[in-house]
Amino acid sequence: MERIPILKMGDCLLVTIQVDMHDRLATTLQDDLTERIVAARARGVLIDISALEIVDSFIGRMLANIAAMSQVLDAKTVVVGMQPAVAITLVELGLALPGVSTALNVEKGMALIGRALGRSDRADGGPQT
Amino acid sequence: MPKSESRLAEIVARHERELVPEWLRYQLETVTRRRDLLNDDELRDQSRQFVEKLRASLEATDGNLDVMSPAWVGVRELLDELSRARARQGFSATETATFVLSLKQPLFERLRSDLARDPEALTSELWRTTVLLDKLGLYTMEIYQTSREEVIARQQQEMLELSTPVVQLWEGVLALPLIGTLDSARTQVVMETLLQTIVQTGAGIAIIDITGVPTVDTLVAQHLLKTVAAARLMGAECIISGIRPQIAQTIVHLGVELGGVVTKATLADAFAIALARTGRTVVKLAPAAS
Description:
Chain A is α/β, with parallel strands linked by helices and 129 residues long. Chain A has one domain (6-116): 2-Layer Sandwich (Transcription Regulator spoIIAA), CATH 3.30.750. Chain A is built from 4 helices and 5 strands; from the N terminus they run ββαβαβαβα. A 5-stranded mixed sheet of chain A has the order 1-2-3-4-5, with helices on both faces. In chain A, helix 1 packs parallel to helix 2 (57-72). The longest helix of chain A is centred in the first third of the chain and has 18 residues, at 23-40. Chain B is of the alpha/beta class and 290 residues long. Chain B has 2 domains: 2-157, Globin-like (Orthogonal Bundle); 167-277, STAS domain (Transcription Regulator spoIIAA, 2-Layer Sandwich), CATH 3.30.750. A 5-stranded mixed sheet of chain B has the order 1-2-3-4-5, with helices on both faces. In chain B, strand 2 (173-179), helix 9 (184-201) and strand 3 form a beta-alpha-beta unit. The N and C termini of chain B lie far apart (102 Å). The interface between A and B is medium-sized, with 26 and 26 residues.
C-alpha cells in the first residue's frame, strides 16, 4: 500500500508529502507518524506540504489533527511550504489551523523547531534568501 | 389595415432622396449637434445609410414593426455600430438618441403632404411611424447603455489590477498598501497577489497598510482577517498598519475581533516592528562632520 515516508533527522521527524493526499493516505500517515514519534522519541515534527496542491475539508482537518496529536506527544510541529491556493482554500473552509505553527520553507521550519526546543540557532529567525 | 401598412414603406421609398437632406438639416440645427465629435460628412453618410436600411426593412416586412425581428437586422446593426461609436466618442445619451428621433419631423411632414386627403390614414401612419422610431430610439439607448457599462466594467478590471501592488520594503519584508474600498472581488485579488509574492520572495513578514481604505465594516475586517490567516498558514506573519482613529473606533464599536493580529497606527511603526522581528534595527549615524 502507498505510504508517505517519514524521515528521521536527529530528534526530528521529516514528513514530505509529494503526492496528492487522499483520505486513506491521510489516516495511514496519522497512524504511522504517531507511532514513529513515540518509537523515535522525536521532539520535533516538520510536515512539508509544498507539493500539495489540492486540499478538501477532510485533508485540512487531518493536517490539524496530525499537528495536534504531535503536540500532545510533546513534539513541536511545524507545517511548511503551503501553497497560496491551499492557504486560501483552507481559510475559506474555515480551517485556519489556529494551533499549528507554520513556516515558509523547510529551512525556516527547522529553525523554528530549533528555537522552540531551546537550541542555539544560527538562523536567529531572520529571513534567509 | 392591410392597405395602410404598406403606405409608410411606399412613402419612405418615394421620398428617400429628399428625406435625407431634410433630416440632415434638422440634425444640423439641433442644439445637441456635436461638431467637435462628428463632422458633417460622416453624419450625412450615416443618415443616408440609415434611411436606405429603413426603407429596405419597411419594404421587406410589409408593415411589421417588431424591430427585433430578423427583417430589421440591417437597421439594428447600423444603430449598434453608431451607438457604440458615439458612446465611445463621448456623446451624451440625449445626443445619441436624437439621431433616430429627429427623423420624426421630416417623416411626419412627408406623411402629411402625401396623405393630406385621407385624415384617417394619416393618423394611423403617424402613429405607426412614432411607434417605429420610438422603438428604434429605445434600441439605440439600450446599446448606448450597454457599451457604457462595458467601459465601466473594463475600467473596474483595470483598477483592480492597478490597485494591488505588493512592494518589497526590505529583504523579507513586504508591504501591501491598500487603497479604496475592499469588496470580495478585490480581496480575492489582493490575497492571491500577496500570497504569490510571499512565495516568490520568501518574505516572512507582510505589512498590510489600510491608510487608503475609507471605511472598515465587518465585511472588510473579515476579508482582512482571511488574508492574514492565509498568510499565516503559509508561514508569513502579517501586520496591519495605517489604522486611523475613526477606523479604530469603528472596529471596536462593531465588535470586530482582530485577535492575534499585530496592528499599528502607521506604516513606519509597522516597519520598525518588522525590522525588529527580522533581527535588524535602524540607527542614526554619528553626525557627519561639516
